[in-house]
Amino acid sequence: MKDKYDVTIGLEIHAELNTATKCFCGCKNDPFSSEPNANCCPVCLAFPGALPMLNQNAVKKTIAAGLAMGCEINDLAIFERKHYFYPDLSKAYQISQLVRPICLGGGIKLKSGKFIRLNRIHLEEDAGKLLHNAINQTSLVDYNRGGVPLIELVSEPDLSSAEEAVEFLEEIRSRLIFSGVANCRMEQGGFRCDVNLSLKPKGSKTLGSRTEMKNINSFRMVARAIEDETKRQAEILDKGERVISETRKWDEAKGKSSSMRNKEEAQDYRYLPDPDIPHIKITKADVEAIRKTMPVLAHQLREKFTTEYGLPEYDAGILTQTRDRANFYLDCVALLKEPKAISNWIMTDVARVMNERQRGHIERNEAKRCSEDMVDECIPVTAKQLVEIISMVLSKKITKVVGEQLLDKVIQDPKSSPADIAKKMGMLDEVTDKQIIEILGALLKEKPNLADDYKANRQKVLPFIIGQVMKQTRGRAKSDIVEMLIEKTY
Questions:
Q1: Quick one: how far is CA 276 from the chain centroid?
Q2: What is the pLDDT of residue 367?
């Protein structure tokens, strides 16, 4: 199939902005934490005579999103009414942008060096949410989400595989999160995309008929949907038939898509300028003021971590998965110039503690979970505390094993310093050669054949003996000294 057809993919990515209030009214922007229809008013329910009022913060966050993607910011933005009927769209039209969106152009460079262009980023309102009950065959509408500010990032058809699409989406999501404009909670539909896909004969410059798969909200689903639709279209073309341009619905459980309706075009929505919302003038001074507030983004931090701190790309990728983790790492490095050692501790030991705490939350069915949405993380230790532990290990005041134990104790008693806890628990006490030799002697009495086994297969038996010594000394013995004494004793 790859030898016969070129795959062309374009994405329409939707992200809900994390403003305090909705896009065109003063209702709270909180679609999921409140009771159904609790955050509604005459404006977002489209009562006759109710007039919209534009949320300026939503415009600022859209500009910030554009700057994060390298977009040009329009000096004049206009809102239109996009007409269509659906039960969760109270007005029977959506306030959106067509002719003059806030952001134009921009794009993302993939790891391969390929640049994926963005056509635009525009601001619109989200629709409500339908809740279906299959048992009694009823459908209810929750309008808490209706009117939530939503940006749509429209790519050019530059993607050619599921892998490229996922990488592109991951980078878009990362930039939106790090720039502080959106939380991108995928499990809640706060970050989702429509996949436009077509096939054409290999090398042809004419695009084939495209299909659109709506509202896919996980990277895995995007990849599966692209792979399945590519296969489906190839089979149609192999039969000499024509692919119908249509909107399709992805069913994750079945791993298949199904037809929903014919594909709409712009004219089908009967776009009209919204007479209730004035045109927005955006000056260069406005843009520069927002640019000055922009934080360092994940891709910029990855470059800093690899070039300035000498970290491997893998480490840099792990450390920049969330804002909190990246900021925590920066705080640690500012206190101790050991970038690789700190990276190792965060990726292994701190991650271990966080995972254990996460499992505990899940088992107890607690609502608050660490790193649930990869936006905010519950890092259970301060940078100062972690750096103090790492310094004690690097200076060989304690072993790495004791350092791990100390980290657990610090988390249990966060008000005490690592040094105080280590002193109180005897972690700083030296293990003498005599103590180690006594442990080795006792071990030999318990296992008389151990010395012969060690001589016959040193590589296999040595880790066992060292492990037993470490267990007896609670990890305080230094492994190099233990190994030297094993040689002398056995």
A1: 37
A2: 47
* Residues sharing a CB contact under 8 Å with residue 291, sequence separation 6 or more, in sequence order: 67
For the stretch 402-424, pLDDT in tens is 899 899 999 999 989 999 998 88
244-263 pLDDT, tens per residue? 999 999 988 888 899 987 76
Instruction: Name residue 273's beta-bridge partners.
Output: 80
100/75 Cα distance (integer angstroms): 9
Reduced to 3 states (helix: H, G, I; strand: E, B; else coil), residue 335 is: helix
Give the pLDDT score at 201: 93
pLDDT of the residue at 266:
67
Q: Which residues pair with 124 in a beta bridge?
A: 150
The whole-number pLDDT of residue 375 equals 46
pTM for this entry:
0.82
Q: What angle do CA 451, 455, 456 make, to 5 degrees?
A: 115
Alpha-carbon distance of 12 to 193, in angstroms, equals 5
Q: Which of 151, 169, 192 lies closest to 64, judged by CA?
A: 151
Supply the DSSP string of 198-261, one letter for each residue.
EEEETT-SS----EEEEEE-SHHHHHHHHHHHHHHHHHHHHTT-----EEEEEETTTTEEEEEE
**Segments in the chain below pLDDT 50:** 362, 367-375
pLDDT at 356: 82
Taking residue 400's Cβ as centre, other Cβ atoms within 10 Å add up to 16
267 Cβ contact partners less than 8 Å away, ≥ 6 residues apart: none
Paired tokens of 30: 């909180």
| pLDDT given for residue 136 in this prediction | 86
- What are residue 159's DSSP bridge partners? 9
The CB-based long-range contact list for 437-446 (8 Å cut-off, 24+ gap) reads 437/485, 437/489, 439/468, 439/469, 439/472, 439/473, 440/465, 440/469, 440/485, 440/486, 440/489, 440/490, 441/489, 443/468, 443/469, 444/489, 444/490
- Classify the C-alpha dihedral 298-303-308-314 as positive or negative: positive
For the chain, domains (ranges, CATH) are: 5-285 (no CATH), 294-424 (no CATH), 433-489 (1.10.10)
| SS3 (DSSP) at 465 | helix
DSSP string, 363-385: HTT-S--TTSSSSS----S-HHH
Q: Longest C-alpha distance within the chain, in Å?
A: 93
Q: DSSP 3-state helix, strand, coil percentages of the chain (rounded to 5)?
A: 40, 20, 40
Name, in order, each residue with C-beta under 8 angstroms of 99's C-beta and a sequence gap of 6 or more: 78, 80, 271
**Can you say whether the dihedral through the CA atoms of 258, 261, 262, 265 is positive or negative?**
negative
Pairing status of strand 103-104 against strand 72-73: antiparallel
Q: Is 57 helix (H, G, I), strand (E, B) or coil?
A: helix
